[in-house]
Specification:
By secondary structure, the chain is mainly α. It has one domain. Helix 1 crosses helix 5 and helix 4 runs antiparallel to helix 5.
């Protein structure tokens, strides 16, 4: 990952952070790849439980800071910000659905803005607008895409994969 531009590294880290709250769901994108973590969390807490709370954010932040104070990992400290932003954006996104999120877990009750259902066309539009807006605001697209294309091997014409 160190050969990639810093913008791409940050964006990829935010994307991973955005998937982390769904580790409590073994059928999620990250959950399927980390079943040894996902299944126990799901069994103990269920979906949209503690991993969708501010407590989880604080614990994750504490762990990341603790790890990045070790000399071997200090160079990764800058990745904490995009990871936490991604994590929080997932929680915010889930709070827009009728189910909401247990923001103040272990306190009972979910917080919901009830704007649209999960997997609805409204969610797709909202996520699309958010993604495009983020890319435009941070100016990542132009540089990241150009840098990405520079890393793609150029094959002679007529060569098939």
């Amino acid at each position: 990952m160190t050969n990639l531009p810093i913008e791409v590294q940050g964006t990829m880290t935010a994307a991973i952070g955005g998937m982390m709250p769904d580790l409590d769901h073994p059928e999620s994108a990250l959950g399927r790849r980390m079943l040894l973590v996902s299944v126990p969390i799901s069994s103990l807490c269920g979906h949209r439980g503690v991993t969708h709370s501010l407590l989880a954010v604080v614990v994750l932040l504490w762990l990341l800071v603790a790890v990045t104070t070790l000399p071997a990992y200090q160079h990764l400290a800058w990745l904490i910000t995009p990871l936490i932003i991604g994590y929080l954006s997932h929680i915010l996104g889930d709070s827009l659905t009728p189910s909401g999120v247990p923001l103040l877990w272990p306190r009972k009750g979910n917080y919901s803005f009830n704007l649209f259902k999960t997997r609805s066309w409204q969610e797709t539009v909202c996520v699309g607008i958010f993604t495009i807006g983020t890319v435009l605001i941070f100016g990542v697209w132009e540089r990241a895409f150009a840098d990405f294309l520079a890393t793609v091997p150029k094959f002679p014409r007529g060569v098939a994969y």
